[in-house]
Write a structure and sequence with these properties.
The chain is mostly helical. The longest helix is centred in the last third of the chain and has 31 residues. The protein is 73% helix and 0% strand. It has one domain.
């Protein structure tokens, strides 16, 4: 009788702890980089074809995206990260064009870039294992650089330098992927 009560108590504590972690991650906003810009915490509730980061339920979608990504085998994550990167890129553009929310657009653009940098770094760790993946990530990074270059002009002047920093980081990753691709081509 005593051990079943202890197990029940431990299960309840574990459940509360897990719910606490999920609650904190859903309701606390992390800044992708330090700036003197105001925080982007406005949210709204709307119906449409695409849920943008300013939607009230967007943090829940992000949690499900993250769980899906973590449930995939490591060798399949890169293609999903590229998909997430371009989804975030389109969201950033919609936040700039339709919502006039440059703070959140910049944070979303940073998240977009982060997904591609993760995929690029994983590819660079062992490029010989999959040359096709290396070329795919390089192609995606090139497309992301073009889209980011186009978006920078849409940002108000005060946000353009931060967006330009993102662009420079992406160019560094693209160069590393290109060098790796050239090395692999020379070996074959």
């Amino acid at each position: 009788m005593r051990s079943s009560q202890v197990k029940l108590f431990a299960a309840a504590v574990s459940l509360l702890f897990g719910l606490g972690i999920i609650s904190v991650s859903l309701f606390s906003a992390s800044q992708p980089f330090a700036t003197d810009l105001p925080s982007a915490t406005r949210t709204s509730f709307y119906f449409g074809s695409r849920m943008l980061p300013d939607h009230v339920l967007y943090p829940i979608v992000m949690v499900f995206d993250r769980l899906y990504l973590l449930s995939l085998p490591k060798n399949e994550r890169s293609s999903v990260e590229v998909q997430y990167a371009f989804d975030r890129m389109h969201s950033a553009e919609a936040l700039l064009d339709g919502k006039n929310n440059p703070e959140l657009a910049l944070a979303t653009l940073k998240k977009s870039q982060r997904y591609l940098l993760l995929a690029g770094n994983k590819t660079l760790e062992n490029p010989k294992s999959n040359t096709v993946a290396c070329e795919y990530i390089r192609w995606a990074m090139r497309a992301h650089i073009k889209d980011t270059s186009r978006l920078i002009e849409k940002f108000p002047a005060q946000y353009q330098s931060a967006a330009s920093e993102l662009l420079n980081e992406s160019r560094v990753m693209y160069k590393q992927l290109t060098d790796s691709s050239k090395t692999l081509s020379a070996l074959n």
